[in-house]
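Subject: for your reference before the review

Hello V.,

The reviewers asked for a structural picture of the protein, and I figured it would be easier to keep everything in one thread rather than splitting it across files. Below is the amino acid sequence we used in the manuscript, unchanged from the supplementary table.
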Amino acid sequence: MKRPSLIFTLLIALTAMCATVCCAQIAAIADVEETLAAGDRECLGKLTVLMYHNTLAPDKRECVYCINQNHLRKDFEYLKINGYNVVSCKDIFKAVDGKKNLPENAVLLTFDDGYLNNLKYAAPLLAEYGYSGLFSVVGDYTRLDKTQNPHGGDFTYFGWQDIAAANADKYIEIGLHSYSMHNTKPRLGVGKKIGESVDEYKKILSDDTDRLIAELGKIGVVTSIYAYPYGKYCKESEEVLKEKGIAMTLTCNEGVNRIYGRESLYLLKRFNRDATKGSLSEIIGRAR
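And here is what came back from the structure prediction:
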């Protein structure tokens, strides 16, 4: 077999190195933004954000993005007995606007994708513990609600009326998770496609966001929070969302957030709660 040339080998190595550097740069954007936002202002506290997805029936088998109700109860109990303070997005906005410190060991609970199970299994636990949860919904997934997808099982999603019911719950806040951009093709989440112009990209994201905001408005839901599908974002996505009045964006980058003011509420980092890997103490312990 003919051995690859030295030049070919070097090209492969250079490509791999560039890919690694690129990924590192993307992951570092949030840190840069946080530093720029901080300036000389006093830190109002640290914020740990936990990212859940689907809450299943008690004792049901779990996966990377599914946790059962019994396990979620253990998580909430752990937070309670170990001095963590669960805050709402409203609490965070109030703190930064009033320049007040967040409580010690502040934690924000988020639930992505709009799974109907969260209303059945997570919401009662939120009420029981007095915790707030952010439920970020996908407009297009409403076609997979209990009326149009009656046999969807654990993969049944909120319909518009379910979202309205969740919004009426004092322990639940609603966030945006795109209308129809929670996909892997033709783009990953709201990421830009190769060769797509800035203007084309901004119009697509702008129209998608406007559509979800408008539909939620019809059922009396108003929100200024956006959770990026698949954690994909870019400079232009932040510009578009800020123009829409979005005051908080959430990523899938892991880490603890240092809160200074309104600008520090963009590109917040989150820890995915993978129920198959260790306990919450192992995940959140890295954040203390």
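For the response letter, the relevant points are probably these. The two ends are 54 Å apart (CA to CA). Helices lie at 6-38, 69-81, 89-97, 117-129, 160-167, 198-218, 235-243, 280-285.

Happy to draft the paragraph if you're swamped.

O.
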